[in-house]
Design brief:
The chain is an all-alpha fold. Helix content is about 60%, strand content about 0%. The protein has a two-stranded antiparallel ribbon. It is globular and about 55 Å long.
Length: about 200
Amino acid sequence: MTTDRAAPAVYSAEIPEPNITRFLFADTRLAPLWLLLRLYVGYEWLSAGWDKFTNPAGVWVGDKAGAAVSGFLNGALKKTSGDHPDVQGYYAWFVQHVALPNAAFLSYLVTYGEILVGVALILGLFTGIAAFFGGLMNANYLLAGTVSTNPALFVLATLLVLAWRTSGYWGLDRWILPRIGVPGAPGTLFRHSTPQTRQT
C-alpha cells in the first residue's frame, strides 16, 4: 500500500546586494574608472594579438601556423616534474592529447581571440563576455606555467566581469545592451509588442 505524500515546499529568497558591491560594480559614477581599466586590458590583448598576426615568420598565422604554439606547449610539458610542478598533471594531459594535436587550429584561435577580445574591450562592446574570454586565456597561460602579466590581467578581467553593468557604460554597451537585452530581460529589439485593442 502506498500513500501519496505532498512534496516538500521549496522556498527561495533573494539575498540583497550589499551597498559596497552595488557601488563598485553597478554605479555609473565609477564608469570612468572601469573605462581606464578596460582600455588598459583591451590594449594589452590587442597588441599581443596583433604581434602574433603580423609575425613575419608566420608561426602564428600563415604557412608555419602552429609552430609557436607547439613550442610553447612542449615547454609547458617540461614543467610537470617535481613535488610542486608548475604544470599540473591534468593540464599536461590536456596539452598532450588535445592541444598539441590541434596546434595549428589553436594558433589561429589564440591570435584572433586576442585581437577580438582587445577590440571588444576597447570599444566597450559586450564587455563582460569579452573580459570573461580574456580571463579564460589568462587562466590557460597560467595553467601552462607562464606568469608574465597574466596574474594582473586575470584579476582585472575578473573585476570587469563583475562590473559588466558599468564597465561598458562609457562604450557601446550603453546603447547595445538595452536593445538586445540580457539573460532574463529581453531588450527592445526582442520584446513582443502587444496589439492595441480598438475601442468603439
